[in-house]
């Protein structure tokens, strides 16, 4: 077995994908940098070089178990290369000052932070941003985040997180762009561009760190930090492309993931970090471990701290986050002959290069301006943008009887454990969120309707029936206090409130910390205690709108069958409450589309649209057929497919028209469709293009997203949407890991989601 895997890896080196990148010519700028760094390194002792590889936490945000000690004295002794989780110009300046005045060689520090979906102005969680399918908008969120973070002392962000994931149990699906390789790759590119801009030496651009390399989203059982075991077919075709897209876009750094990959954890995986990342992809930046990723190799069972540190360095992992394994053992490993001075030099050089590229050697305090921090953070423009963005990410899953949009009149009862909290709004990984401009849902709705409608409130239920679960799910001060009255009393009060209203808005779902890191769940339904509240509210006979907060696809079959309207609002950031009000009351027409499939139940997971056909596929729309690939108890269909989302208007799609039924290498064809707004409201629609390779040398997915366009249509208006398809769009990594398009028949599908499509067909011919 081991032998077979090794052979495949060897194959990976010998084929098209694996060929070493040709060496690009050295520019004058690079040669200046190389000379500067060579001169600096000539003065450095081995200890000082190892010091550059040490990344410590400043501890302002708690993002892991271990803490870094004696940081100031270590900086003075040249034992620190960078700090993360330390912010504000004052504190950053203080640490930088120690580095550039007290350490022997005065090498500046790099300052990192998890700037994941905005900074103090927080945008919706990444899974929600992906649901906007709006690349310029997403790029601008990264640009704004970089502006604010750099004004506050930060020059390096641990973003974008591009882990493809198809398992809704995994809490970290909230941090990524969902299940799709193509959408994820497009988003990866624009995020890097948004952070880094065109010029990293500007004081408002920051270096990006693409993570978690690699395959972290495929952790077994959706349990965080768990093992990944994956075929090369799936790796190269589905999971690796978004990381590559970020690298191709120029991401300055990469973070190795926590997980084991086919027997070797990413942190120590030479094949991954050197052969794939550097040799095949030509990555020129540096790799950092994740939080204590190096010392965790001891628990993985790879040896003691000295052994795992040496192995990680040799694998191609340059910076050691928090473990201090490099700091405390590499010198001994050098003496013992376990690593070479070339290994240490190479790692040190890459980190110094990053600092050089950021311009820190010219001005170590360039990100430390109180004036900029005052002027450029939480500006009215940023806040307005945050509200606009959030409104583009909500997904209307159901709108029975066109209950929505609500009228700005009468009485609205807002009920649920998530109605009266603002701390919950920004979502996971919003360590810098500033809540002074954030409202609870009740406040947001009041703000949107003014005195035109009356807003009532009742808590209705606890977040979960179990107090310990609620406590674990509301860490980091995102407290949703428990209501200790008996459940019947809480519900009774809510029902009485509902009875006074014309319509009920039920604010239910997950708290923000029920998704994110270390927040995997085996039960992905709305917690039962909230379900009981919903049942009671529905019994009142009042129209009920479910405003669903979530960081992952939830299994909401019951809600979907019983509640007339469902608006999925994720965690929408600083301006979430206003944006929810905008959409509920029709000032903004929802246009979000799911970037991840919603299953009928957790047993279907992992569930994704681009699956393989199998030898015994089930006919579309069928439930159970003996000897077919299906379940006895539930159909194979998702509850809501990838790409799905409704609008307050309706769109009709014409037939797919191809410019030709054959495509020749080097040429392209177009696929056109006419989309018409058949409703009464102006609206945006995401028109999606999928293909299927009908016969391949390897099995190919039943559908693959290859393009999308977001268009806006006035009532009655039609637009012809054109997609260009070329040979390149049809390429995949074959069994020998060659990136090829194989002649043969292809289907083309165009539609409003991955299920409800119109189709046509063409042939890729040899010549
Ligand atoms: C997470 C990373 C994060 C790092 C630093 C880790 O626990 O996995 O995503 O960037 O902490 O905060």
Brief sketch in words of this structure:
By secondary structure, this protein is of the alpha/beta class.
| Number of distinct beta strands | 27
Biggest sheet character: 8 strands, parallel
* Stretches with pLDDT under 50, minimum 5 residues: 1-18
Beta-strand content estimate: 15-25%
Helix content: 25-40%
Output mean pLDDT: 95
Through-space gap between termini: 40 Å
CATH class of the domain at 378-604: Alpha Beta
Structural class: alpha/beta
CATH homologous superfamily grouping of the domain at 378-604: Glycoside hydrolase family 3 C-terminal domain
Radius of gyration: 26 Å
List keywords for this structure.
27 strands; Rossmann fold; alpha/beta; 767 residues; Immunoglobulin-like; six-stranded mixed sheet; disordered N terminus; eight-stranded parallel sheet; 32% helix; binds beta-D-glucopyranose
Write up what this structure looks like:
By secondary structure, the protein is α/β, with parallel strands linked by helices. Among the domains are: 378-604, 3-Layer(aba) Sandwich (Rossmann fold); 651-764, Immunoglobulin-like, CATH 2.60.40. The protein is 32% helix and 17% strand. It contains 23 helices and 27 strands. An eight-stranded parallel beta sheet has the order 9-6-5-4-3-2-1-10. Strands 11-16-15-14-12-13 form a six-stranded mixed beta sheet, sandwiched between helices. It has a five-stranded mixed beta sheet with strand order 19-27-26-21-22. Strand 24 and strand 25 form a beta hairpin. Helix 20 packs parallel to helix 21. The longest helix has 17 residues, at 135-151. The protein is globular and about 75 Å long. The two termini are 40 Å apart. The model is unreliable at 1-18 (pLDDT under 50). It binds beta-D-glucopyranose. Beta-D-glucopyranose is lined by residues 63-64, 114, 158, 211, 290-291, 517. The site of beta-D-glucopyranose has 8 residues, from loops.
């Amino acid at each position: 077995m081991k032998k077979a895997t090794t052979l495949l890896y060897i194959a990976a080196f010998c084929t098209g994908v694996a060929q070493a990148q040709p060496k690009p010519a050295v520019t004058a700028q690079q040669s200046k940098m190389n000379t500067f760094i060579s001169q600096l390194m000539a003065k450095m002792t081995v200890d000082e070089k190892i010091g550059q590889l040490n990344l410590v936490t400043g501890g302002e945000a708690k993002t892991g178990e271990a803490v870094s000690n004696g940081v100031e004295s270590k900086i003075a002794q040249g034992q620190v290369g960078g700090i993360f989780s330390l912010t504000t110009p004052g504190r950053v300046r203080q640490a930088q000052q120690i580095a550039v005045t007290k350490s022997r060689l005065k090498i500046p520090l790099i300052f990192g932070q998890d700037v994941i979906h905005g900074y103090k102005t927080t945008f919706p969680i990444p899974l929600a941003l992906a649901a906007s399918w709006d690349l310029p908008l997403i790029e601008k969120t990264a640009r704004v985040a970089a502006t604010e973070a750099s004004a506050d002392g930060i020059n390096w962000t641990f973003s974008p997180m591009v882990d493809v994931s198809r398992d809704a149990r995994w809490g970290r699906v909230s941090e990524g762009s969902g299940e799709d390789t193509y959408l994820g790759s497009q988003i990866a590119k624009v995020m890097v561009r948004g952070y880094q801009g065109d010029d990293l030496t500007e004081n408002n651009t920051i270096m990006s760190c693409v993570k978690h390399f690699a395959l972290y989203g495929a952790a077994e059982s959706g349990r965080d930090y768990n093992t990944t075991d994956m075929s090369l077919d799936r790796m190269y075709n589905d999971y690796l492309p978004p990381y590559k897209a970020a690298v191709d876009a120029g991401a300055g750094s990469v973070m190795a993931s926590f997980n084991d990959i086919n027997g070797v954890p990413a942190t120590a995986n030479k094949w991954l970090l050197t052969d794939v990342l550097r040799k095949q992809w030509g990555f020129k930046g540096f790799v950092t471990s994740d939080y204590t990723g190096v010392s965790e190799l001891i628990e993985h069972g790879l040896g003691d701290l000295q052994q795992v540190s040496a192995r990680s360095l040799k694998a191609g992992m340059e910076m050691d986050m928090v473990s201090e394994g490099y700091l405390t053992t590499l010198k001994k490993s050098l003496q013992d002959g376990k690593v070479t001075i070339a290994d240490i030099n190479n790692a040190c050089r890459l980190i110094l290069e990053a600092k050089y590229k950021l311009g820190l050697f010219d001005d170590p305090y360039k990100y430390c301006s109180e004036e900029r921090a005052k002027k450029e953070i939480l500006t009215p423009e940023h806040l307005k943008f945050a509200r606009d963005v959030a409104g583009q990410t909500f997904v209307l899953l159901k709108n029975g009887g066109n209950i929505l949009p609500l009228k700005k009149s009468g009485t609205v009862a807002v009920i649920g454990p998530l109605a009266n909290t603002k701390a919950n709004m920004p979502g996971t990984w919003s360590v810098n969120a500033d809540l002074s401009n954030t409202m609870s849902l009740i406040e947001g709705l009041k703000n949107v309707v003014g005195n035109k409608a009356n807003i009532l409130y009742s808590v209705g239920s606890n977040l979960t029936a179990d107090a310990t679960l609620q406590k674990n799910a509301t860490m980091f001060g995102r407290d949703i206090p428990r209501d200790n009255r008996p459940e019947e009393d809480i519900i009774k009060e809510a029902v009485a409130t509902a009875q006074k209203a014309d319509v009920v808005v039920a604010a239910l779902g997950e708290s923000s910390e029920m998704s994110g890191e270390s927040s995997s769940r085996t039960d992905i339904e709305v917690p039962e205690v909230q379900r009981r509240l919903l049942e009671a509210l529905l019994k009142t006979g009042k129209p009920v709108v479910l405003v669903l907060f979530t960081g992952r696809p939830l299994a909401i079959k019951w809600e979907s069958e019983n509640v007339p309207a469902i608006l999925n609002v994720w965690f929408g950031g600083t301006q979430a409450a206003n944006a929810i009000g905008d959409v509920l009351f029709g000032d903004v027409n929802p246009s979000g589309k799911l970037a991840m499939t919603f299953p009928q139940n957790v047993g279907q997971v992992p569930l994704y649209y681009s699956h393989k056909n199998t030898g015994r596929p089930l006919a579309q729309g069928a439930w159970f057929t003996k000897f077919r690939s299906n379940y006895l108890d539930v159909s194979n269909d998702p509850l809501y497919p990838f790409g799905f989302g409704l609008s307050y208007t309706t769109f009709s799609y014409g037939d797919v028209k191809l410019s030709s039924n054959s495509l020749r290498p080097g040429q392209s064809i177009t696929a056109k469709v006419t989309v018409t707004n058949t409703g009464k409201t102006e609206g945006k629609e995401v028109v999606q293009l999928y293909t299927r390779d009908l016969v391949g040398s390897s099995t190919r997915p039943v559908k693959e997203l290859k393009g999308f366009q977001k268009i806006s249509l006035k009532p009655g208006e039609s637009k012809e949407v054109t997609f260009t398809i070329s040979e390149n769009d049809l390429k995949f990594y074959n069994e020998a890991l060659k990136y090829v398009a194989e002649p043969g028949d292809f289907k083309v599908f165009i539609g409003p989601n991955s299920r409800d499509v119109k189709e046509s067909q063409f042939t890729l011919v040899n010549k």
